[in-house]
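Appendix B, record 7
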Amino acid sequence: MSLKELSRRSGVSIHAITSMEKGHHVPRVDTLEYVIKAMGFDVSLQISERENEDDDTGRSDEYE
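Structure tokens (predicted):
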């Protein structure tokens, strides 16, 4: 599938898709879902408790 067709089917701009492909942009979950579904796949998200509760939050200092 071409980028143009993926953009048309997903409603996500070609620029945004290209930026995601190159790792220059981290998409929101809903945007990623639009692209994945446009490619003919389903999306499933599982949230579970961490195995090691002593780990830090995984957030950078930027958000503290």
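Remarks on this record: The helical segments are 3-10, 14-21, 29-38. The CA atoms of residues 16 and 58 lie 26 Å apart.
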